[in-house]
Automatic annotation (TrEMBL):
The chain crosses the membrane at residues 18-37, 57-78, 85-104, 144-167, 187-209, 248-270, 282-303, 315-333, 339-364, 376-396, 416-436. It is a multi-pass membrane protein. It comes from the Bacteria. The keyword DNA repair does not apply. It comes from Streptomyces catenulae. It is found in: Cell membrane. Its main location: membrane. Keywords: Membrane, Transmembrane, Transmembrane helix, Transport. Pfam families: MFS_1. InterPro entries: MFS, MFS_dom, MFS_spinster-like, MFS_trans_sf. Residues 19-437 form the Major facilitator superfamily (MFS) profile domain. This is MFS transporter.
């Protein structure tokens, strides 16, 4: 039976906190499984005989292609079926795929395993966003999303710390003999360590989280809840095409910088400063934990603050502030010395770059009607995955391999690709504020006319 959560019920606050906490824990685990690959770039390239471009396909396209595509049908289910069940199945799937990454002995096998990680993780975020929107009022949604987004950086930091520790532990060992598996490379052990705990979290999630009551549902003349198909979600997007064009493209370029640096920063510090994987893991683990963690929480607070002060486009404005703060240090950090100064500028980049996560999500959730929220989120994640995660990481590799012709010049690639992306995101987010305000006003008028729930209307405006 669905638990009714209201402010008058003292258990509701504790339960909401628990749901955010366990969803954040799942997000942490997903980023641990996703991010560990980047720290092990050199041994994986050596043992599987890969180029930078091939490695970028493993860390970007392999994960993002089905992460984005599978997000669409999964989000449709999340708008109709039990969201905790969907999330539990997803956690189990990506944990098994991470473990299989440790069995890979070729580029093709690793590519398929990383595809599996993407398929599993596609279940988490759209369903979690949808649940949060039913659990929290819009003036508190930014903080909840900020805490959830913090999970990505706690996970990224943990991946760097754990990966650095495990690599340091087995640095003098080329192969390890495991029962039932046989001899494996030392880096493969890391995937076994990271993948298996997720199965326990999947079971805990399934047993302890209940699907919250959905609010603002569209109903037919008889009062029954009306199911909304993907075509109606697309119609809603078309009705606000200008708003979502600026939002999706602007935040995708913004995300390209943040997510690309998470993938390529380890290679940059390994090659440019001669650091070993353990040193890089600990250094980047600290940067991600402090800078990204503070940035995503401050970004969520800023969204709520601007919204509370009467700015309907508060989420877009918060994203714009972050993009402006990010663009100069992302150009400079690969070219300064010593390493401490470079890491400090990277930390500034990561702090402002993290504003994108709560800002982009809050903008989608407050504008979209209840029954299309997960689907709209999935469509955004599809574009973000293919452009920022897939395209952004591969573009840096192509510039390094094909234009500059030397993997030692990766810093120049990072400055060039992500500097341009940052400038473009500033322009698009600034231009998107006015259309977003107009869309919010139209949706509020529609909701006032439809007290049982605003039905997506592609013909509006």
């Amino acid at each position: 039976m669905t638990e009714q959560l209201t402010p008058e019920n003292p258990r509701s606050t504790r339960y909401r906190t628990y749901v955010v906490t366990i969803c954040t824990a799942a997000y942490v685990l997903s980023f641990v499984d996703r991010q560990a690959l980047s720290l092990m770039i050199e041994p994986i390239k050596r043992d599987l005989s890969l180029t930078d471009t091939q490695f970028s396909l493993l860390s970007g396209l392999a994960f993002s292609i089905l992460y984005g595509v599978m997000g669409l049908p999964v989000a449709t289910l999340a708008d109709r079926r039990s969201r905790p069940v969907i999330i539990s199945v997803g956690i189990a799937l990506w944990s098994l795929a991470t473990t299989l990454s440790g069995l890979s002995r070729s580029f093709a096998q690793m590519f398929l395993a990383r595809v599996g990680v993407g398929v599993g993780e596609a279940a988490l975020t759209p369903a979690a966003y949808s649940m949060f929107s039913d659990l929290f009022p819009k003036e508190r949604l930014g903080r909840a999303l900020g805490i959830y987004a913090l999970g990505s950086f706690l996970g990224g930091s943990a991946a760097f710390f754990i990966g650095g520790y495990v690599i340091g532990l087995v640095k003098d060992v080329r192969t390890v003999a495991l029962p039932l598996v046989g001899d494996v490379h030392a880096w493969q052990v890391t995937f076994f360590v990271l993948g298996l705990p997720g199965l326990l979290l999947a079971l805990l999630f399934l047993l302890t989280v209940r699907d919250p009551a959905r609010h603002g549902l569209a109903r037919d003349a008889s009062g029954a809840v009306r199911r909304v198909a993907m075509r109606e979600a697309l119609a809603f997007l078309r009705g606000h095409a200008k708003t979502f064009s600026f939002h999706v493209v602007g935040f995708s370029l913004y995300g390209m910088v943040l997510l690309g640096l998470m993938s390529w920063a380890p290679a940059f510090y390994l090659r440019t400063f001669g650091m070993n994987p353990t040193q890089v893991g600990y250094a980047l683990g600290a940067v991600v934990l402090v800078a990204n963690g503070a940035g995503v929480l401050f970004g969520g607070w800023l969204v709520d603050r601007l919204t509370h002060r009467g700015h309907p486009d508060g989420s877009m404005r918060a994203g714009l502030v972050g993009a402006v703060g990010m663009v100069v240090p992302v150009v400079l950090f690969p070219h300064v010395r010593p390493v401490g100064l470079s890491l400090a500028l990277l930390a500034v980049t990561m702090f402002f770059g993290s504003f994108a996560m709560p800002a982009s999500t809050a903008a989608m959730q407050v504008l979209s009607p209840n029954q299309v929220r997960a689907q709209v989120s999935a469509l955004f994640l599809l574009v973000l995955s293919l452009s920022a995660v897939g395209g952004g990481t591969t573009l840096v590799a192509l510039v390094t391999d094909e234009v500059l012709g030397s993997e030692a010049r990766i810093g120049t690639s990072l400055s060039l690709v992500y500097g341009i992306a940052g400038v473009l995101s500033i322009g698009l987010l600034w231009l998107g504020c006015a259309p977003f305000r107009d869309s919010m006003a139209r949706q509020e008028r529609l909701a006032a006319r439809e007290p049982l729930g605003a039905v997506p209307d592609g013909a509006v405006g």
